[in-house]
Amino acid sequence: MKKIVAAAMSMVLALSIFVTGCGTPKDDAVAISIQAESGSATSSGSASADAGSVDVTYANANFFVQFMQVYYDSMYSQYYGSDFWSTKIDASSDATIADQVKEQLLTSIEDLYLLDLHSSEYGVSLTDQEKADIQSAAEQFIKDNSTETNKKLGATEDTVAEYLRLSTIQKKMEKAIIAQGNITVSDEEAACRTFTYVKMQTQTITDASGNAVQMTDDEKQQVQAIAQQLSTDAKAAEADGTGASGDAGSLESLANADGYTTSTYSYASGDTGMDEQVLSAADALSEGEVSDPIVTDDAVYVIRLDSAYDEAASASKKESLLQEKQQEYYQSVIASYEDEAGIQVHKKVWNKIGFDNMYAIKEAEESSDATSSGNALTTSSGSASSTSTSSTTVTSGSTDTDSSSTGTTDGTSGQ
Question: C-alpha angle 297/303/306, rounded to 5°?
Fold first, then answer.
């Protein structure tokens, strides 16, 4: 299993140094100043409890960026090479991937501290046990990593502990904000209908060489004729009682005989995952009823409504809608904090933070003495969300982190 250690977050790294920065700011230099509209100050940095403000130091901002870079390096370097950070986002802009990611991480840092500044409004704080666990994890992280790796990451007991402190506060704040929002989803909102469908493509066809080629008008007409006959036969089977799923006259059996497969689809009001014409036709059907051919831009469908109210699908939809609404509410609260806050980015300091090192994650054996507190933070698309105060595992395709076990780390350098 691939692992990263940051404060009992085990990171096994090989470190390649491409640029040696000069004029590195002092650790206590201010990178970002944040003044919240209300709330109490954080426990670190130069903060005023009355003003609800905090100065984010270079040391803390730099460690956050460097640690997040590990995820990006591990994901993207294998596809785009070691110079992917300098790749332009698009031809019309001079902005690079490094510019875009750093802007997202800046927002993540701001959001973490804003949540911390507002934490007293929700009665959120760290327990003595959580503080002890964080300190212990930070100490272990420094021990598990080589001196060089820690140096390049900007990892000290203080910076790692601050990262974990903010992570834990963030997770607690997310729960508290969502709880206060009292978000609900009605049965009507989540009510799902389910249908079985056959989709017949009318745009491309695979030729003898396995290449996708555009269908001719004659070929499209042939497909539509097959769809029409399929609909007619399925309706007839439905009428004489042999059209149920599994019967010889069912839509599934008839489609298979024509070389097509069937699938099922459940949808609620406002669904956008299926062609609108298909959903409109489904709305007009009664249970067990088969549709006429439904012609869309790229296919012809024949569908059968299986359930006018699918209880299982509705329950699942209700849960997903609830989570979606909760996250929307949570993000709206963060957005309000951002709008109300006075934030100053000290460019001379912030601009010194960059992606000058390339990190590669090595394989690490799982340790038997790992502990997990269950508190977490994740950064994605510039929003603070979830990582473990005991350990983290890099997840493929995102910067999300998850609970894992503690490993060891070391770093090597090379040009």
Answer: 145
Domain carrying residue 386: 13-183+324-402
The Cα 295–Cα 298 span in angstroms is 8
3-state secondary structure of 395: coil
Residue 30 structure tokens: 């201010």
CA dihedral 357, 363, 367, 372 (to 10 degrees): 60
Cβ atoms 11, 406 nearer than 8 A: no
CA distance 71 to 65: 10
254: CB partners within 8 A, 6+ apart? 230, 233, 234, 237
Look at residue 313 and tell me if it is in a domain: no
268 and 381 belong to one structural domain: no
How does pLDDT run across 326-372, given as a tens digit for each residue? 999 999 999 999 999 999 999 999 999 999 888 766 555 544 333 33
Pair (31, 152) in one structural domain = yes
Judgement on whether residues 177 and 205 belong to the same structural domain of the protein: no
Together in a domain, 281 and 328: no
Distance from C-alpha of 314 to C-alpha of 310, rounded to nearest angstrom:
6
Q: Which pair of structure tokens corresponds to residue 297?
A: 């831009």
The C-alpha angle 135, 349, 17, rounded to 5 degrees, equals 75
Residues 139 and 208 in one domain: no
Residue 295 burial (CB count, 10 A):
16
pLDDT in tens, 141-191: 999 888 988 999 999 999 999 999 999 999 999 999 999 999 999 999 999
Contact 13, 70 (CB under 8 A): yes
Strand pairing report for 393-394 and 383-386:
unpaired
